[in-house]
Design goal:
This protein is of the alpha/beta class. It contains seven helices and four strands; from the N terminus they run αβαβααβαβαα. Strand 3 (68-72), helix 5 (78-86) and strand 4 form a beta-alpha-beta unit. Helix 2 packs across helix 7 (116-139). The chain is globular.
């Protein structure tokens, strides 16, 4: 029996904040990359928020048929609200400013001028994302709709 037949999640989609005006947006993207590349590379894929919002059906179908975590920089939660509007409920919605609190004060808005505070912030957020991925995989998270009825063709999600 395959994972899709058993209902077990094989991949968790991560949709990161696109905001560049605050350090938390940069931290969101860097932490997501760390999870994808180092912490949970076999269990996660990224979904491109701009493509998702622009109507890319591959991105939207992935979010409809797989557990999804949004990582927003601030309490506006643009990634979460956009995902829920166009793809359905998310499995987890994390907000970097909630995770880090005042610890983000020494962080840079640009990934080019990162320092030790930025590295620590990225590590903390990445570990939190990885923990949520593990929880979802442990729960055998399944999407709201039947997997067999949807296609899996996300552009960024490979």
């Amino acid at each position: 029996m395959s994972d899709s037949e058993s209902g077990a999640a094989t991949k968790i989609g991560i949709i990161s904040c696109s905001g560049e005006e605050i350090p938390e947006g940069t931290i969101s993207r860097l932490a997501t990359r760390r999870v994808l590349e180092s912490l949970r590379p076999g269990n996660t894929v990224t979904l491109c928020l701009p493509l998702f919002l622009a109507g890319n059906e591959g991105e939207r179908n992935f979010a409809r048929t797989h557990p999804t975590i949004t990582i927003d920089g601030c309490d506006k939660q643009c990634a979460r609200w956009g995902t829920e509007k166009h793809g359905g409920p998310v499995s987890r919605a994390l907000v970097v400013s909630d995770i880090l609190g005042v610890e983000v004060a020494g962080c840079s808005r640009s990934s080019r001028s990162r320092g030790p505070a930025d590295e620590e912030a990225v590590a903390v957020v990445a570990e939190r994302i990885a923990a949520d991925v593990d929880e979802l995989l442990g729960e055998g998270a399944t999407p709201e709709i039947d997997r067999a009825s949807a296609t899996d063709g996300a552009v960024c999600a490979s």
